[in-house]
Amino acid sequence: MPSSTKFTSILIAVWLLLCLGGFWMLLEYSNTPGDVGKPNAGWVIPAGLEVETENATLVLFAHPRCPCTRATMSELERLQGDYTDAYSMLVVFYEPIDGGDEWRSTDLWRRARAMENTVAIADPGGVLAMDAGATTSGQLMLMNADGGMEFWGGITASRGHEGESLGGIALRDLFRGLDTAHRRTSVFGCPLSADDGGLECIVEEACCELTGD
After folding, report:
1. Closest CA to 207 of 19, 16, 28, 63
2. Cross-strand bridge partners of residue 94
3. CA-to-CA distance for 73 and 186, rounded, in angstroms?
4. Are 123 and 94 in contact (CB under 8 A)?
5. Are 115 and 77 in contact (CB under 8 A)?
6. What is the residue-averaged pLDDT of the chain?
7. With contact defined as beta carbons under 8 Å apart, do 114 and 125 qualify?
8. Are 211 and 161 in contact (CB under 8 A)?
9. Tens digit of each residue's pLDDT (9 = 90 or more) over 125-171
């Protein structure tokens, strides 16, 4: 075999190994949950918000620039379509203390504003999220009409992946008045405190592409 051909073959082999290694790392990361936090069962919805609380209230803590939270939003849109009158929703979007208008003009903000029975608010510095115990984008808290916490977790099976998940099943059971064994589930998303999206958001975007979402 000519030396040039052999060298090319080695380069191709090395390139394939690097590609497979990168794919494996992204796949592993996409299935690694974020910090589920420590829920504050005594957390209350901030006063003055026009959130209907006669029924259950579903609270989403989200980073407006987290690519994989798009999958969570898609699952919430489906859930709301099936259980429109079962609950109201509050979406709490993290933003830096000095965050500008661009933090409130993302696709996640637009989708939240378009949902029925939903109030979206900014959380400068992540104060509300910290009080509730949420640390990862996509964290959900379901509160009953008396303010008690019924569920704490996420509703995607991996980062950026839409489809059936333990959290989604649990919420549907609760909205149907059934009990569920899954009141705590994993959350897949980037840290709520990432002021610029961070490296993890970039990696998650690649994971979203790998899963086709």
Report:
1. 28
2. 123
3. 16
4. yes
5. yes
6. 80
7. no
8. yes
9. 999 999 999 999 999 999 998 888 999 999 998 777 788 899 999 99
Alpha-carbon distance 49 to 118, whole Å?
A: 11
Residue 140, strand partner residues: 60, 153
Return the HEC string of the chain: CCHHHHHHHHHHHHHHHHHHHHHHHHHHHHCCCCCCCCCCCCCCCCCCCCCCCCCEEEEEEECCCCCCHHHHHHHHHHHHHHCCCCEEEEEEEEECCCCCHHHHCCHHHHHHHHCCCEEEEEEECCHHHHHHCCCECCEEEEECCCCCEEEEECCCCCCCCCCCCHHHHHHHHHHCCCCCCCCECCCCCCECCCCCCHHHHHHHHHHHHHHCC
Look-up of token digits 């029975």: 117
pLDDT single digits (tens) 19-74:
444 433 444 444 565 677 788 988 988 887 877 667 899 999 999 999 989 999 99
